[in-house]
Amino acid sequence: MIIVSACLAGYRCRYDGKIDPDPGIVDLIRCGKAVPVCPEMLGGLPCPRVPAERTADGTRVLSREGTDVTEAFERGAAETLRIAQLYGCDRAILKARSPSCGKGLIYDGTFSGTLRQGDGVTTELLLQHGITVESKL
Predict the structure, then answer these.
(1) What are the structural domain ranges in the chain?
(2) Are 37 and 3 in contact (CB under 8 A)?
(3) What is the mean pLDDT of residues 62-77?
(4) pTM of the predicted model, to two decimals?
(5) How far is Cα 13 from Cα 30, in angstroms, rounded to an integer?
(6) How far apart are the first and last CA of the chain?
(7) What's the CA dihedral at 21, 24, 25, 27 to 10 degrees?
(8) CA 35, CA 13: separation in Å to the nearest integer?
(9) Cα separation of 121 and 103, whole Å?
(10) Which residues contact 90 (CB under 8 A, 6 or more apart)?
(11) Each residue of 92-111: pLDDT tens digit?
């Protein structure tokens, strides 16, 4: 089993409320090979929601309005890990650049569209627990 970002599967959970399904991810779910999750909504955030980015030091996640949403991101990451462990997932395909799910490159916290090296909160936690993570736009 594979954990996948629900937004990649076409669930209406993106920060902006839009849907943009990836056919390959949808097929994985249809075949019973993947479990869709949205860490941000699992953490209690609504859809749509104000965009958020990890701070440059990686210690907090702030909304564009300056609200600290770190706790919600951490709660969603923990719930995603619990689901991954429940289903025996050892791999995840998550949304690139996201402050939750990005791997390798995420937005830099300035809301300028600039990317920096780093991982999202959920990706970081999954990697710490031996789950392989790949990013997908």
Answers:
(1) 2-50+72-103+117-136
(2) yes
(3) 98
(4) 0.96
(5) 19
(6) 21
(7) 100
(8) 15
(9) 10
(10) 130, 131, 132
(11) 999 999 999 999 999 999 99
